[in-house]
Design a protein that fits this description.
The chain is α/β, with parallel strands linked by helices. The chain has one domain: Aldolase class I (TIM Barrel), CATH 3.20.20.70. The protein has 13 helices and eleven strands. It has an eight-stranded parallel beta sheet with strand order 1-9-8-6-5-4-3-2. Strands 7-11-10 form a three-stranded antiparallel beta sheet, with no helix packed on it. Helix 1 (23-31) packs parallel to helix 2 (45-58) and helix 8 (220-228) crosses helix 13. The radius of gyration is 19 Å and the shape is globular. Bound molecules: flavin mononucleotide (FMN).
Length: 345
């Protein structure tokens, strides 16, 4: 079974859904002594199998497969659905941004985790991590039987204690600085919004399994600070987005490097769940507008996000990034790992 002691560097390249985590990125990080992760959130089993096989052909190092734990979701009343459709339909963008009529999707609203995870049992990555909640016990048991270590995201002590009680091997402590979706279990519950170091210290005090810090960690000094706060390793997402091997869109990379004054904000407008990204026109237009629950809103905005990526328009894509994105560095992943290593020393 994977343990953090195997790592040359206590670094996990964060799982990032949406095409960012190419097999080349994952393998480069694993070959450099860290953990390379895939974000398989919405991916179909065939793609998951292909990505795991492609990365394994490039590295014998540790690979992590990450999944969302979707919760049952109900559509709101027809009036709210109409308002959400109008909010998207009234955006000041080209008519072809939404191919066909804007309609609310029908069930199933999200992929079946048991189907998605089948390739994991075949390809046996070293780690399996979950975002938004705790998967069924049989999944944790099966991973352990196959020698796969299991981790889950927590944003507060109570979620971390539930994760530990579920038999996880480590906890990803995701602070408020983190880019991408916030891993809160209950979207409508009050959010303590703890920062990464404060959360790491609290979890290290209350939990007995390893803690991995995530959120706003960009250089070796930040990794040291997380370890001094009680973390066993650090999970960096934004720091890897501008790597040569990253599949982030051209506009995403451009805004990370050149649009530092915009800052990042937390919005539900893209997916229905709170997520942090670089502020843009879409986020501004959607303030106060009707938004459908996760992941229905995500499906609804999918064609617009694809159109924006295809036309290199950064104003209508989700430019997920942490608060520290202005410290992004563009270089090959192996060089970034080497740089982080020197900075830690
Ligand atoms: C583009 C992007 C996509 C992300 N997608 C996922 C995901 O699919 N699963 C997940 O557990 N975390 C996801 N995250 C969150 C990361 O795991 C991690 O918490 C975050 O990147 C840490 O903050 P940082 O971006 O400031 O390093 C994503 C983050 C980013 C930036």
């Amino acid at each position: 079974m994977f343990t953090f002691k195997q790592l040359t560097l206590p670094i996990i390249q964060a799982p990032m859904a949406g095409g960012v985590c190419t097999p080349e990125l994952v393998a480069a990080v694993a070959n450099a002594g860290g953990v390379g992760s895939f974000g398989f959130a919405y991916s179909a089993p065939k793609k998951i199998a292909e990505d795991l096989a492609a990365a394994r052909a490039l590295t014998t190092g540790p690979i992590n497969a990450n999944f969302f734990v979707f919760a049952p979701v109900a559509l709101p009343d027809v009036g709210t659905q109409q308002k959400a459709i109008s909010a998207l339909g009234n955006l000041p963008i080209a008519e072809d941004a939404f191919t066909g009529d804007l309609t609310v999707p029908s069930e199933p609203f999200y992929p079946d985790l048991n189907e998605q995870i089948a390739p994991v049992w075949e390809h046996k990555p070293d780690m399996l991590t979950f975002h938004f909640g705790i998967p069924d016990a049989h999944i944790v048991d099966k991973a352990h039987a196959l020698g796969i270590a299991v981790g889950m995201t927590a944003t507060c002590v109570s979620d971390a204690l539930a994760i530990q009680a579920a038999g996880a091997d480590f906890i990803v402590a995701q602070g408020i600085e983190a880019g991408g979706h916030r891993g809160v279990f209950e979207v409508d519950a009050a959010d303590e919004e703890l920062n990464t170091l404060a959360l790491t210290m609290q979890l290290a005090m209350h939990c007995s399994i390893p803690i991995v810090s995530a959120g706003g960690i960009m250089d070796g000094a930040d990794i040291r600070a997380a370890i001094n706060a009680g973390a066993t390793a650090a999970q960096l997402g934004t720091a890897f987005l501008c790597c040569d091997e990253s599949g982030a869109s051209a506009a995403h990379k451009h805004y990370l490097i050149n649009e530092d004054k915009r800052g990042s904000v937390i919005t539900r407008a893209f997916s229905g769940r709170p997520a942090r990204g670089i502020d843009n026109a879409y986020i501004k237009h959607m303030q106060g507008q009707a938004i459908l629950p996760f992941p229905i809103q995500n499906t609804m905005t999918g064609p617009m996000r694809k159109w924006a990526a295809d036309t290199n328009n950064g104003e209508y894509q989700s430019l997920w990034a942490g608060t520290q994105y202005h410290r992004s560095r563009a270089m090959p992943a192996a060089e970034l790992m080497q740089t982080l290593s020197s900075e830690m020393a």
